[in-house]
Amino acid sequence: MKYIGFPRPSYSLDEILNSPSSYFFTLELRNMKTQFILLGLILSLSVWAQYPEPNFFSLSTLYIELGKQCKCGTLYGSQEIPGPAYCSYFKWNKPDTSKTTSHLDGYKVYYRDMHDSSITVLSALTDTSFFKLVGIMGEVWVTAIYSNPAGESSKSNVIVNDNLPISINKVEQISNKTVIYDKNTQSITLKDVDNSQIVSIIDANGKYIRKNINCKVIDVSDLNPGLYFVIYSDIELKISCDKFIKK
Description:
The protein is mainly beta. It folds into two domains: about 110 residues, Sandwich (Immunoglobulin-like); about 70 residues, Immunoglobulin-like. Strands 5, 6, 8, 9 and 10 form a five-stranded antiparallel β-sheet that branches. A four-stranded antiparallel β-sheet has the order 14-13-16-17, with no helix packed on it. Strands 1-4-7 form a three-stranded antiparallel β-sheet, with no helix packed on it. The N and C termini lie far apart (about 85 Å).
């Protein structure tokens, strides 16, 4: 027996959208979309209120010269630090917790390296300040850690530092740029320093790397990427300093 089917009714797009059922369906979708937007806004506001972030985050860096010792000033603590070294001081204000039921447990200070973008925790603490014997080149910020319920705030203001101070007394400025880094040969060349006797390489944290004597071209292929300082003294013990970035 041959099956005889009825033709399927066809409607235009305008007829579908203008039908009464389509109107209520579209209205319902709009109501759901509005509800989702309001829910997302309420959740974001509640998270902000529940885990407020610290504010007025600041960073100060002190460089201690080669051959000297310093207590890093009254702000940095009382530890006697021999140079060459960096002392970085971090400080921030406690967040306003008057509008949250969560308990403020402490803070985490984060650091993003400017060379490889890796993120590390510099310190986890309960105070609103601390010092660390490092030179910071990259981004730093602080967050607040809470419990009951547990959570972490958003970032404080982010500090971007792309340079470090050098407090060497340059008795004799031999050249505007005395250290030339060559990425192809992975070496540095000391320019216009014929009478240089002792050359020391220091990393960004103030750590002594190596010493070279009577050498104008120095191989740095074994060094990790980052900022380095070259401190050299001539036969009259006059100290000069320059820097380079190993890539």
